[in-house]
Amino acid sequence: MQARVVLHLHTNHSPDSSRSVASLIKQCQTLGYQALAITDHDTMAGAREAERLRPEPLVIIPGIEVTTTAGHVLGLFLTRAPAEQRWPAVAHEIREQGGLVVIVHPLRPSNGMSEADIVNHRDVIDGLEVWNPSNSPEGNEAGVRLAAEHHLIRSAGADDHDGARLGRAELIFEVPELTLSALKTVFQSGHGRVMMDGEEI
Ligand SMILES: [Zn+2]
Ligand SMILES: [Zn+2]
After folding, report:
1. Nearest ligand for residue 64 CA
2. Domain ranges for the chain
């Protein structure tokens, strides 16, 4: 079956969003998504609340956006919030619990990771956002280039805080069943299709 997956979502558990988990779930259901990664800033409280509220068969990918010493990083498929914020120690902590490390909005001046911090620690990175509607065109282009040069999984993140960017970035996975482990396997295979404003890139 085909699963439409939206990664990198914020709720009112992030200081920069006032949207409730319930309304986010409703918005995503209206758009027809099968799986959502809730990744609030430095907390898994939003993901936990979504796991409690989720209507079947919607899958919640438990995640977090960690403010690391080198920029923002997503941890996906987590069981607990990482305690570490130093880069790259946080990546080791995410991987030790079976999670995946995804660099978001690369090269964004305020809080995106630099090319050097990505390249120097490529061995602890799983994926990289090649499309984030809140990143600059230069940042998104750098993401495409770095993912190709360093064989990183191409990811896309809505980075949505209020509904305005929902629908602009998603991944399409072919999965045998709609479960967390099936979604993780396809993500890791790099076979997810990356959609930018409805067009595959
Ligand atoms: Zn961020
Ligand atoms: Zn974000």
Report:
1. 2
2. 2-200
Query: Ligand 2 centroid vs 56 CA: distance in angstroms?
Result: 26
**Cβ–Cβ < 8 Å for 166, 191:** no
* Ligand sitting nearest the alpha carbon of 112: 1
CB atoms inside a 10 Å sphere around CB 110? 7
Ligand 1 center from residue 111 Cα (angstroms): 6
Q: Which pLDDT tens digit goes with each residue over 100-154?
A: 999 999 999 999 999 999 999 999 999 999 999 999 999 999 999 999 999 999 9
Please give the distance, rounded to the nearest whole angstrom, from the Cα atom of residue 3 to the centre of ligand 2. Answer: 22
Judged by its nearest atom, the ligand closest to the C-alpha of residue 39 is: 2
**What is residue 182's predicted lDDT score, i.e. its pLDDT?**
98
**Fold of the 2-200 domain:** TIM Barrel (3.20.20)
CA 197 to ligand 2 centroid distance, Å: 18
